[in-house]
Amino acid sequence: MHRTAFHRHPWWDRVIVALDQTSLLDVLTWVERLRPWVTWFKVGPVAFLRHGPALIHTIHQMGARVFLDLKFHDIPSVMESGLRAAYHLRVEMVNFHALSGPEALRSLAQTAQAWLDRPLLIAVTVLTSHDWPPWDPRGSPEAWAERLAGWAFEAGLDGVVCSAGEVPTIRQKYGPDFRTVVPSVRLEAPTDDQRRWATPIEALQVGADWIVLGRVLTGSLEPMAVCEQLNEAFWAGEQIGR
Predict the structure, then answer these.
(1) pLDDT per residue over 142-185, tens digit each?
(2) N or C, which terminus of the chain has less Cβ within 10 Å?
(3) pLDDT tens, position by position, 169-225
(4) 3-class secondary structure for 77-113?
């Protein structure tokens, strides 16, 4: 059955839109335009360095949730301080590089343990711009993503950032409650620095808990039309099953 764009598919709750614009007005305009569809927005280093905590407060006031994507990677005490700062901003999700090591990841989980309203703690495995791990030329991104996910799982974190191709193995090994956030989601093969990519339907159907969309929407001349097309594709994707 054909469903109109006004019948919003539940998968939209699993979409995170990346806000990378340099103008504060542009950032907030995108939040306002996409808010009927999207509940999550990702604030990365460029947006945060330009606009600071005020941007996060404003997004919250607009009724949306924030994934703070600063990819902390430091000694354990510095990462703990970063986590506390993120907690005071009341973000709903924050990430850290898993390569900081098991000790650092355990310290993060222990720091947040007493917080009833803590953010989701997510570990970055292998960046999707890598088609091989630069720290291990003989390794594979898939093997390293699985290994780093294991460190995060054993430390007590909530999940990982990984490519869509790594989701099935990670879910099988660490269970459905261990969350996966999938970046490098595109409608067609990318021509930029992304290597390991998937379409929105592919990423959601393999079990991604969240997918990150950036230029797919914010780089489009007709973003509302893209939202409508994705909505129709989500309904069609659900019909063919997972």
Answers:
(1) 888 999 999 999 999 999 999 999 999 999 999 999 999 999 78
(2) N
(3) 999 999 999 999 999 787 865 555 455 678 999 999 999 999 999 988 998 899 999
(4) HHHHHHHHHHHHCCCCEEEEEHHHCHHHHHHHHHHHC
Positions marked catalytic: 71
Phi, psi of 19 (to 5 degrees): -105, 100
Q: Residue 201 contacts by C-beta under 8 Å, 6 or more apart in sequence?
A: 233, 234, 237
- HSE-up (13 A, CA, CB side) for residue 61: 7
Domain edges within the chain: 10-240
Residue 56 contacts residue 68 (beta carbons within 8 Å)? yes
Q: For residue 87, what are the CA distances in angstroms to 14, 106, 210?
A: 22, 17, 21
Token pair recorded at residue 196:
């390991």
Contact 70, 56 (CB under 8 A): no
How much is the pTM?
A: 0.91
The distance from CA 74 to its chain's CA centroid, rounded to whole angstroms, is 20
Q: Which amino acid is at 182?
A: V
